[in-house]
Automatic annotation (TrEMBL), chains A, B, C, D:
Recorded metabolic or biological pathway in which this protein acts: Amino-acid biosynthesis; L-homocysteine biosynthesis; L-homocysteine from S-adenosyl-L-homocysteine: step 1/1
Stated role: Adenosylhomocysteine is a competitive inhibitor of S-adenosyl-L-methionine-dependent methyl transferase reactions; therefore adenosylhomocysteinase may play a key role in the control of methylations via regulation of the intracellular concentration of adenosylhomocysteine.
Organism: Olea europaea subsp. europaea
Protein name: Adenosylhomocysteinase
Cellular component terms per the entry's GO annotation: cytosol
E.C. numbers: 3.13.2.1
HAMAP family reported in the protein's UniProt record: AdoHcyase (MF_00563)
PANTHER family: ADENOSYLHOMOCYSTEINASE
Enzyme kind, highest EC tier: hydrolase
Length: 485, 485, 485, 485
């Protein structure tokens, strides 16, 4: 795909796979709106006052139907928006087309190369000569990373005239990042610095991105305020848990059509994502084995009747392997060689380095047979048996299916909208320093409350007397900050 | 699609959607083989002796990847095969292409019209001047129906010269059947009679088809022996139950991406199919309400914590409706009008008349919006709200997803192979009259046994003393005929 | 306990533990009545016409609170009743006292010796000089066995003058039976013969008793008609399955207070009882392993995510062992020696010979430590480690808890009442030969229907058109005889 | 029971129900030790160094078998111990007897009056003239409360000569507390002041007690350091959740023998306790309805397929009501009047004021029928129908069954031992102020780790590289403080 920016008749930039899918995307967006009461309530509550009037928002977040509803909520509140995906396989092309045609500048398609991926990220951040965005919606932290690396390079360049050297790293993706920055320095050596200066803040979606932010905060290198949306209860205990419970089997089924019942499944990691995955597999009739480093999570798995072993113990007898750890080097090529024929290996834990894709790709004599896009059988020369790797080791629920369903994403994205509103409202008050914040509990509870009516639920009201007895306000928040839900 | 038969270079007839998908089909067939140990064992055990040498088998059964493995098991045992699908939406075009190219005459594609459907059925039954098939593999009984109706018409024509009158029936599909037979009479007034004479027997796959056969047996109109494969334990208690538990959520997810958790789901009917559906929905986090006519099945639902109500009680508060009854007129257009906006209505119970599609299609002012193939939103003029109907009321797991997974179909189809072998072996012995038979229990147990190794199971062996104590042979069968599992 | 029959002030015979518990028994009987709608409906429907007027009914069935409601349903319909328990540990003494005081002749207490057990059985069958009962309600077949053995001995005695020789058998319990019969011959050599002649029939409750009856039918030795209540769907698919799902954890908890979550549990046998047990253990958080001889049941276990292995594979790593097979010699002393310290061993499958109690008791140097009644720790001399055996290997749910709960027993016992009514109504018509019968399906459905209202369920009604379409009567029965539910 | 302190032959004080049950208690304690690996590991690790040498520990915590193992762990580490129960129904008399005979001064029996209860608490705190305990193990905070109220009264008395006036409160239990303090003032006006001065700190077990502590911290009235054991993950996410999942059905079954399957159950509150209860009831086949004030917890319930309504919505159709809120006035007598006949009402949420017992007891014409201890039927005069109240509204799992099982209590109590060790070790360092602390995460993880071996689990080890990648030490702790598990 030639990397040329296109323009709509109204002059808005975009680069998507197929603009003719916009109608289809629109139909699915309309379905999703019915399933996303939190976002629709934001439109009702805040739309009239146009709080984002004048705000430029850049998003780097899976360009799906659900994200489309998020984007159009931001625009309904007055924002201008530019968007890219945060994963090379996660874009739904009809969603991208509908948004590009109707609402925002989109640079995303399913099956980007890494080169294309970072080009899209750069496009989303580039608001033209006037500088960058006011706000960032980030997922995994790639937009944030690019700015931080850009600023670092510009400062070094100013100081010493040195430009980044892509060959200084083994990491092939990071080489691309450095190349982009290096090439940018030639034409505009202050681009990222201007961005940083304009930026009011970022709201970050995932565990992985949040971890990066806390590290930057600890190192003192964070360049702007950040709101940790991931650790809103209505995000991490819903999207991570119930979203994966839904989308893991969905991805398995669409990619392989394999019967889950009767199979032995290994879930690496028993955090919120692992809990959702293990629950889904168990309910579908698999026998689930968990691997864990953390004894508390391990004991939780045991209490649910799951076996806790090491990967080495079970690598040759299991049928399905799922990584959910957020760590790297979980399933190595040496593990894969020992697996049963047609064992399924997939990752739903964020980066593709949970699975040793590089080890697999470079294994001498290994043969890759693409069954269909995002479903590959890799055959080892010694045994002639193969394993099935989904989405090239990247997020299988987004690569092989359509990601989390609308309802649970409405919880997550309502947190995003609230976080963005908060950052924008306080842009001049100094309330937020260059640190990482979580949303206050009453907003978390509000997000939940917005989603109850759709499911027919009715809340009980505290009496004054009862509220006093347990020392909470009648209207909440109802729990201390350390409460774990 | 022009209804012209094509031929492979080897001269075998076919009509499929796209022969270029044959390679993709072959890859998925190879994956499925690993998941279908029963069928592969049949190839190992019976292949060398070529028991089907000289046998012509016609199949009318969803032309999926799993069926492809069945077909190639039949050909591996020496049979010649012609095949059509038994549902206009259930064909997987890559499976059809691979089989058409490599193994058997196939007449099937996804999205046939009813005209095309019956044309395909006729093609699959037509073995040329030498008459029809020796054996039929039937699913739902359409191939059997066509022969029975054909013979009836030919007898009447011989007697009175009268030909069938399509306008004698309201049922638009049956009009097509009668038209085909009527037109055939002109060129060959003995075609179905010759078929009947050659036919050794049929093995029938489903509850619905079996019911038809028992009715014909009761009426004395059954023209050839039939084996009821559906009521093998390893079929109805596996495919119907565990297959639907797998494929119902699969279909829902692929068609609508809707979050199942938190929703109110109504399952009409709590037989094996309904039990599988209800289990799947409950496990995914829905609140499930069952409708039933049979107090025993209703009490079973209650014991699983499901509510049992009538459709009228819940029609306006539920989010998902699934019919599994095998009966007609379950969800009428008057029900649909009262449903919530974007309520999902689907059928997994065999025929599309479980849902009042005709009432819906002819409702004054109703508007159909096709979101994507097999996913339609129907908007009522009064309320401007819509419901989402899957697969036009036909089997949603085959129309919207890929049907049951390979492993459980291996159980069902191994029963089919065994039934076909039995009919063919006894073709001249008179063992089978023009009646309906079930397979003996030791074969049922054998089918199960063939599927244990793949799942790592180890059976316990009875001692002689124990076997005597409970009065069974050491090698089984272990249960009395009335045992319910 | 001295084996002397006592009499109430009204002159009715009894032998129970403690008559002062009658009030407590009455209170619990009243609670149970609310939970047993089937039995209470029988009282309402049939009470006024007193169909059992003049009938003598002997019951040999666990003398629990639920059985008390059964007995008082029989008396409410006009019967005279004598009762004993069918298990030495299953009597609830307060239930026995209340019935003895208020309604029927009872011979039963918790913790009978085998001598006492058979004395009670004899008392329950002995209606005085006028002969025996008209009808028997049997559970496990001991009352039926005593009559058959008695008649056999009397015939032999008449022919040859020979009396039974208790030393002719190794089975210590059967020695007691033969002794009773031998001693009876001296005073009345026609007692069992007269019983047989008077007897209209028996209705049998359990799998084990039914198996005995079918063997006698096959051998031609059955002396009177029998109705197989066990194989009513509303019995075996409810009491066996849902009853055990409830009462297995109940027994485990009351006997040992052990935490089930996290444990490895082995369920020997995956019939209805095993299915209920495995479901309960899995739901409570155990990891469940099943042992099976039958490949079909094994495959069912696998589809539910349970591992299927042999006892030998897992004997040294499991924490809880449950036998449900209905066979003998399942867990032998050699297995028990290999178990972990404080492994729990129990039986819910009918006779105590599922567990090798004799091998355990006679193991050299083994030490029995009674924690509390029905909970023993057996310590092996070699390892000084012990296992915990519940209820001395007899039914643990009745020995350690209170058996199945009222609601599910209402299903079973309503079948008993209907079976008894049917036998009595047809006593002179010759409808029932000396064979084993099951109740017709419409009565099975009726039993279920009587239990729906209590749970708030509403059935759907077929239209005439729908009923015709599926060829069933509007009012049922709705399923063919071979239907498996 | 006359309130006289007795003495063992060794001179240790006690007051228990029946010393002859000590042997039975010892047997069950020995069984429990095998199930409590955390406590036994503490004995192995710390026993040799006798860290509690010279420490006096007073405990106010359900005097069960599990607590006996805790007490003997404290004494094995060198402590002297005095103990009372924290609930009038929760003592297991055989456990109390064994401990009183063998290990510690115990003042507890099942079925205390409130007068007796507070007498026991006072006895447990009274170490003779030398003052009070060094450390307190508290559950619900009653021992802590008594000291705080005592000190307050002594200060007022010293200041103004005024003594507490029991008639100043409506709360009948608090009247008893004030009476005890008032009476004590006469003989020793510095008793509680001396206690306070000696006290090193308290470790508190439950949500309710912790809430009281935080309130005192907020008010500045907390008199000594406190460790919040409840909010250790290995306590609140295990004992509250998995403990209740086990012991709620246990209590229901022992108290009522009612079948849970098919019933409608209302769980008031969906915190950890409510989650455990709802899971248990759902798994047992009930249809569960949740009431909640907190929208986040409500949304969690919905995601598990539970209905969320208000008590008013369902009061007349449910069969079982369970309060788990930690609040008061949840089920009022006006609710109870509207319930179905024999609806079961019980509390597992801490205090008996969750249920309006006072309203019930004083309802005009209401009749109480005690079925058996802790199971009462209350009949309303208007309807003559009754409801069944368990444990007089107090903790039903301890009142009607034996509380949580040993394994999960081992987690909770290992936290207690660690907390006590920490307080004692730091008694002179000033590390702990008069505030509330939670244990550091590495100790929480250690508690979990001590429980893995018993369940056969094997942990995965991080490589150095992986640990660096996610920025945690190889040996943990692995999660940030805000992690919710």
């Amino acid at each position: 795909m030639a990397l040329l920016v296109e323009k709509t008749t109204s002059g808005r930039e975009y680069k998507v796979k197929d603009m003719s899918q916009a109608d289809f995307g629109r139909l699915e967006i309309e379905l999703a709106e019915v399933e996303m009461p939190g976002l629709m309530s934001c439109r009702t509550e805040f739309g009239p006052s146009q709080p984002f009037k004048g705000a430029r928002i850049t998003g780097s977040l899976h360009m799906t139907i659900q994200t489309a509803v998020l984007i159009e909520t931001l625009t309904a509140l007055g924002a201008e928006v530019r968007w890219c995906s945060c994963n090379i396989f996660s874009t739904q092309d009809h969603a991208a087309a509908a948004i590009a045609r109707d609402s925002a500048a989109v640079f995303a398609w399913k099956g980007e190369t890494l080169q294309e991926y970072w080009w899209c990220t750069e496009r989303a951040l580039d608001w033209g000569p006037g500088g960058g965005p006011d706000l960032i919606v980030d997922d995994g932290g790639d937009a944030t990373l690019l700015i931080h690396e850009g600023v670092k390079a510009e400062e070094e360049f100013e100081k010493s005239g040195k430009v980044p050297d892509p060959s200084s790293t083994d990491n092939s993706e990071f080489q691309i990042v450095l190349t982009i920055i290096r090439d940018g320095l030639k034409t505009d050596p202050k681009k990222y610095t201007r961005m940083k200066e304009r930026l009011v803040g970022v709201s970050e979606e995932t565990t992985t991105g949040v971890k990066r932010l806390y590290q930057m905060q600890a190192n003192g290198t964070l360049l702007f305020p950040a709101i940790n949306v991931n650790d809103s209860v209505t995000k991490s205990k819903f999207d991570n848990l119930y979203g994966c419970r839904h989308s893991l089997p969905d991805g398995l089924m669409r990619a392989t059509d394999v019967m889950i019942a009767g199979k032995v499944a290994v879930v690496c990691g028993y955090g919120d994502v692992g809990k959702g995955c293990a629950a889904a597999l168990k309910q579908a009739g698999a026998r689930v084995i968990v691997t864990e480093i953390d004894p508390i999570c391990a004991l939780q798995a045991l209490m649910e009747g799951l076996q806790v072993l090491t990967l080495e113990d079970v690598v040759s007898e299991a049928d399905i392997f799922v990584t959910t750890t957020g760590n790297k080097d979980i399933i190595m090529v040496d593990h894969m060689k020992k697996m049963k024929n047609n064992a399924i290996v997939c990752n739903i834990g964020h980066f593709d380095n949970e699975i040793d894709m590089q080890g697999l790709e470079t294994y001498p004599g290994v043969k890759r047979i693409t069954i269909k896009p995002q479903t590959d059988r890799w055959v080892f020369p010694e045994t002639k048996t193969g394993i099935i790797v989904l989405a090239e080791g990247r997020l299988m629920n987004l690569g092989c299916a359509t990601g989390h369903p609308s309802f649970v994403m409405s919880c997550s994205f309502t947190n995003q909208v609230i976080a963005q509103l908060e950052l924008w409202k306080e842009k001049s008050t100094g309330k937020y320093k260059k640190e990482v914040y979580v949303l206050p509990k009453h907003l978390d509870e509000k997000v939940a409350a917005l989603h109850l009516g759709k499911l027919g639920a009715k809340l009980t009201k505290l009496s004054k007397d009862q509220a006093d007895y347990i020392s909470v306000p009648i209207e909440g928040p109802y729990k201390p900050p350390h409460y774990r839900y």
